[in-house]
Amino acid sequence: MDGVPREVRNLRACLVCSLVKASTIDQFELDGCENCDKYLHLKGDRQSVYECTSPNFSGMISLTDPKNSWVARWQGIDSFTRGCYAISVTGRLPQHVLEELQDANITYRSRDISINSYS
């Protein structure tokens, strides 16, 4: 499968969709995020990769059939491409990225359960 990381060390996850790729930064910088690059513009921009991805995440889901997966529906990723996804991604998008998403009428839902959970 194309999007499956070959090893579990050095992985990063997209802060918007939670797609997981190799953390050498190169994979996100080379290919961007298959789900989010039309508005995150990670491809060819190392700074954006650092700002919009995180090495801190928990759990992984391997998604092979997004449209027919109840887990994908439960995670809200059933419209995304096949690949590996984090269940929770720790981190926050920079304010300028949040504003760009809002200006483009894109609803952003944080994947960081530490922010969304009750204390």
From TrEMBL:
| Compartments, record wording | Nucleus
Keyword list (alphabetical) reads:
Activator, Metal-binding, Nucleus, Repressor, Transcription, Transcription regulation, Zinc, Zinc-finger
| InterPro entries noted in UniProt | RPABC4/Spt4, Spt4, Spt4/RpoE2_Znf, Spt4_sf
Q: Which domain of life is it from?
A: Eukaryota
Q: Per its UniProt record, what Pfam families does this chain match?
A: Spt4
Principal localization reads nucleus
Specify the Spt4/RpoE2 zinc finger domain's residue ranges: 11-90
Q: Name one GO cellular component term.
A: DSIF complex
Coiled coil regions, renumbered to chain:
none
- GO annotations under biological process? regulation of DNA-templated transcription; transcription elongation by RNA polymerase II; transcription elongation-coupled chromatin remodeling
Q: Which GO terms describe its molecular function?
A: RNA polymerase II complex binding; zinc ion binding
Assigned protein family: Belongs to the SPT4 family.
PANTHER family given in the database record: SUPPRESSOR OF TY 4 (PTHR12882), TRANSCRIPTION ELONGATION FACTOR SPT4 (PTHR12882:SF1)
Role played = Component of the DRB sensitivity-inducing factor complex (DSIF complex), which regulates transcription elongation by RNA polymerase II.
Protein name as it appears in the record: Transcription elongation factor SPT4
Question: Native species of this protein?
Answer: Trichoplax adhaerens (Trichoplax reptans)
